[in-house]
Records
---
Amino acid sequence: MSAEVNKAVVRRMNLEFIQGRKPEVASEILADTFINHTPVPGLPEGKEGVFAFFRVMWNAFPDMTVEIFDQVAEGDTVTTRKAFHGTHQGDFMGIPATNKRVQINVIDIIRLEDSRFVEHWAIMDQMGLMQQLGVIPAQG
């Protein structure tokens, strides 16, 4: 597939599944052989881990939205710099709701085959999130 088609598939996953909470979109886009190379500890590497992670996120940040800043595509790979925005209204990793607005910065790398996600790597600013939630002091 072309780079533009692959970027559109990644945008769709972010806006329709993550932000729009439509699990059928993820079921369509995630290949049966999908592997997440950077799963949250304790979650499976496959499709079921994606669903489990976002159930936690949606519970903790029920108004979560996705902002895509940049996308770069080369060959079958799309890299996206984005942020999740939301209000901490439910338990998150043992942290009770703080009602604080947060921005979680993320860089995703997705490898696609036939318009489906087959591999995923991510860097999420967990330190920044913990600082925003008041769990650790902000630097600087």
---
Amino acid sequence: MTFPAPDVTTLEITDANDARLADYRALKERHLNEEGGRFVAEGERVVRRLLASRLRVRSIVVTEPRLRALADALADHARVDVPIFVVAPAVLDTIVGFHVHRGCLAIGERPTSAEIPADARGVVVLEDLVDVDNLGAIARNAAAFGVGALVLSPRCADP
């Protein structure tokens, strides 16, 4: 399937058991991280942020309506090495094991080192913060105040 933008090709998948979708099957964030430093981005806004970041995107899986909604971001950030899988909503739900109402997921790779951008306005360092709700609240507040980086110790909750 050719996408309306140049240099962006999509692959239509109708079989939920397709091996290319292994990272999305019964999503377990911890499992992805332990096996190779990957994470899941869910929803249009988060996938847009991932595409605009310097992080590597391994793949994207979307429904047809989300593909159209992401057209500009995909065209602006066309990466020839990123497969874009288009699936029906029912196929997506079968792949991940629950209803994905946002219709858009991506697998990204975590940075291998704690690189802090040179232009970071501020940095928040968290050590051994294990409560995901507290971590989320801190991350949202840091973003609201324009903080450029979060640095987490190895025993922190996974953001």
---
Amino acid sequence: MTFRFLLRGNAERISDSCRLAILGLFLGGFCLTLGAEAQVDGMGDAPSAKVQARINKLEEEREAESSKLAVVHLAMQDLYESLSKTYAEASSGQSAAVVDELERILDPAFRAAAQTAEKTRGNVKKTSGAFARELPNALRRLENEFLKTLVSLVKRAALKTSRDEAANLTDFSPRDFAIAVARQAFAGKVEFGDVWNDFVVPKSKLAKQYQEQRGVVQKLDERITVLKDPKMAFTIGAPKNMARIPGGSYTVESKYGFVKKRRKPKVIAFYIDLYEVTHEEYWKNYYLNLKEAADKEAALPRSQDGKAIWFQEPTSGEYQPLPDMMRWPVTGIDCVSALAYAKAQGKRLPTEVEWVAAAAGSPKDSWLYSWGRTYATGFCNDKKAGRGTPAPVDEFKAGRSHFGVYQCCGNVKEWLATTKKGKDFKDEVPRGKNVVIRGGSYLEQQTGVSLLWRWELPGSATRLEDLGFRCAQDILGAKRKTR
């Protein structure tokens, strides 16, 4: 649909910058407020009657506001189509109405500039200056709706034409000048979608009304979503498929593994992936973008005995995941490749402290599992689940953490940006150092998938079929210290 330019050019642009900068800093309290509204009557699988009544009321309100949005949307589509058609005509010189209007309004400014050119023997600076002084008054006389909508483009084209032709203005007629301005403004070198984004949307009252109405519907959607699932509160304002983990002091404990200790470090608010990175994401978003054969060889997922986990296409020799594996977490890669993937997406690996914070209950509590203090059958993909393979990353919803993060316990172990001695890294995996791994996998018993499970393995020399990762991201404006 041609109307996509509005959405691509503004609404999503605003979402990427402003929401990360503003909502990212202040969402902590907002999340708790939204969560509290839904938790008044408990956090069971189904909302209570009281909460359901609120949901029903909000859904009715959303339906009414969505109808209003649809009306404005159609009006925006009509405006886009109308202006696009006129722009095409003006670009090809077939719009007499545009040239007539430009001749009418620019005539006084043109004559003033022409007189100056004659008096000053074609002094470019004085001639274009005379035109520029008269131009604002000329533009106020615009009546053509197409030109009024694109007045910034017209102004820019008129000034450039005046500068380019200043020495020759006495040889031009007002109409010739108007045609030159039209050609400069609507030469067809720029797609109308870009003109729409750059000139129409920023000043269009209808576009502003659309964005405001879209915001109303979006807020209602968010409230309904959180009432139905309180844990979704932490995704609001976060990048797609990520959760915002509030800052605070979290209990980091390890009883099983090489290091057994308990501490309560402070965490600065950050974003973390809701899901482990899948084979499909790793393949499409990273592996296929590698140009050098050596880089692809290093990044290829392999089992512990060195065999490729992916299928090799006989004709091309290219590797790719089997269809059934696409939604499984990618495994068989070392920490170096995991970090390289994260950086390629503008993210990083979570530190051990961050991972535990995201997997835990809350800063005020210490849970043994992401869902609570005691083991529960069917809440994670461990050995007892009996699959014998990883599961799709969005399964086992009941086992999500307090912040809505999936499968911190079980499914696959996860690489973290922390070395054996607790030192965090961000841009490069330290050579010769063991890296922390947490989370357990589908091969582990209930002890191995607990939040107290901690191991360290060589970051550049370890590939396991039950070891993957997820990504984290700094929040704009939140200072993060690397120890």
